[in-house]
From TrEMBL:
Name of the protein in question: DUF2017 domain-containing protein
Length: 168
């Protein structure tokens, strides 16, 4: 998928990949802007309390940092939207800073999807996907788990390409 290209990285995306990445990045932007709800488990996952045992301190910290963190997440998802072709297929070329934004945005998307899908650190996504396919191969869960697995593959590919660039 991603590969080194001089001082940056490049990947070729098909039309379906472009659609999925646009949808995922747009959903992160919407989550940060439309009715931001601290009781939403996804928001809790993306913005964990730094002081879980001290609610007043956590609230004060959030007061001073949350706006910048939200803006950062919006910018990172926007970096994906800005670089993707309007419709696939197409190549995406990223410099070091853009690649880091993509990496963080993909991570946010995976955290959000994993939370919605109720995946834990102990969950074997391959087993979950196999079970979902056996239960109902046309279910939205099968699609969502497939996207989650794809994002993991994409994240690993990007990270490996970035490491390859850094150690050149």
């Amino acid at each position: 998928m991603f590969r080194r290209n001089g001082k940056g990285v490049v990947a070729s995306f098909g039309p379906d990949e472009v659609k999925v990445l646009r949808k995922v990045a747009s959903e992160i932007v919407a989550l940060m802007t439309d009715g931001f709800d601290h009781t939403d488990p996804v928001v809790e996952r993306l913005f964990p309390d730094v002081y879980p045992d001290l609610p007043e301190d956590a609230a004060e910290f959030r007061l001073y940092t949350e706006s910048d963190l939200k803006s950062g997440k919006i910018d990172q998802a926007g970096a994906i939207l800005a670089k993707l072709p309007d419709e696939g297929p197409g190549d995406v070329r990223l410099d070091g800073e853009e690649a880091e934004c993509w990496l963080r945005a993909i991570n946010d998307a995976r955290l959000a999807m994993g939370t919605r899908l109720e995946l834990t650190g102990d969950t074997d996504v391959s087993d979950e996907l196999d079970d979902a396919v056996l239960h109902d191969p046309t279910s939205s869960r099968v699609f969502q788990l497939s996207v989650y697995a794809y994002l993991g593959y994409l994240q690993e590919s990007l990270l490996n390409a970035m490491i390859s660039v850094d150690h050149r």
